[in-house]
């Protein structure tokens, strides 16, 4: 009977060594008690650039940038690992060619049965791509938040121009038309009154445009005040409203508040125009360095499904606009509804351009 192949036993020393040697995504190697490299796997060669014959026998401090060497970081890490059993870190490391990469590192102290330190196991993973992606996300968010600020500034300027120029000019025309109505012959009076009505309706439309460009509530002190004012407008129309902010730990920054208010405003406009709801609730919660908002109504609901930022046939533009606003600043948006069961609009917006985990949908 032939001897069993040790590699047939997955727990044998040879099998484990073969596994460690074959791993490509992690640098896995051993250090002696003084921090000298004693083993080297293929992942370590791929990540750090050293061949086994180049690095075995050298101190592991060769992987650290000059500022970490001056701070005594390699010795500190071994000291902590010895005292606590392990050490975990994330930071810059240096390849054989001198280039840097961002690494997640775990050092584990290895003791024998008598408690004697026999060395250290070190596992390093190159997460440069992850860090680069996070930095790009932060930069995109910063750009989008600046864009929101610029858009709001332009909206404010246009609103002021319309209010100070167009509306005032039309108001002057209205006054002159009313004066003319008292002076014209009776047979011309219907035409003059029709003109006065047209001018008044135009002024009304312009004022509505100003309110949509820059609602006065946006200039109030907090987001909750602005949303509360919007809900009071619905309440005046007979819709029961509720604003829940018990889990809002602080008012979001102005740039985030603008985006939140715009989306809430669009959602409440949909409730007012389409839902035939008797009750609507807005809930604001601070979570994952951002604000999670839920707008719930008991209206007629909808079978519209919004996927990838675009509605299925039959949806209206407001749904897409809400989603695009949230996603533009690194957040997300969703609509949960079915006919006859009301609707839930739920979205998350980060507090600012910094990295945030977001909330799973």
UniProtKB/TrEMBL annotation:
<dbReference type="Pfam" id="PF02518">
    <property type="entry name" value="HATPase_c"/>
</dbReference>
<feature type="domain" description="PAC">
    <location>
        <begin position="87"/>
        <end position="139"/>
    </location>
</feature>
<keyword id="KW-0808">Transferase</keyword>
<keyword id="KW-0902">Two-component regulatory system</keyword>
<dbReference type="InterPro" id="IPR036890">
    <property type="entry name" value="HATPase_C_sf"/>
</dbReference>
<dbReference type="Pfam" id="PF13426">
    <property type="entry name" value="PAS_9"/>
</dbReference>
<keyword id="KW-0418">Kinase</keyword>
<dbReference type="Pfam" id="PF07730">
    <property type="entry name" value="HisKA_3"/>
</dbReference>
<feature type="domain" description="PAS">
    <location>
        <begin position="28"/>
        <end position="68"/>
    </location>
</feature>
<dbReference type="InterPro" id="IPR011712">
    <property type="entry name" value="Sig_transdc_His_kin_sub3_dim/P"/>
</dbReference>
<dbReference type="InterPro" id="IPR000014">
    <property type="entry name" value="PAS"/>
</dbReference>
<dbReference type="InterPro" id="IPR003594">
    <property type="entry name" value="HATPase_dom"/>
</dbReference>
<dbReference type="InterPro" id="IPR000700">
    <property type="entry name" value="PAS-assoc_C"/>
</dbReference>
<dbReference type="InterPro" id="IPR035965">
    <property type="entry name" value="PAS-like_dom_sf"/>
</dbReference>
<protein>
    <submittedName>
        <fullName>PAS domain S-box-containing protein</fullName>
    </submittedName>
</protein>
<dbReference type="InterPro" id="IPR050482">
    <property type="entry name" value="Sensor_HK_TwoCompSys"/>
</dbReference>
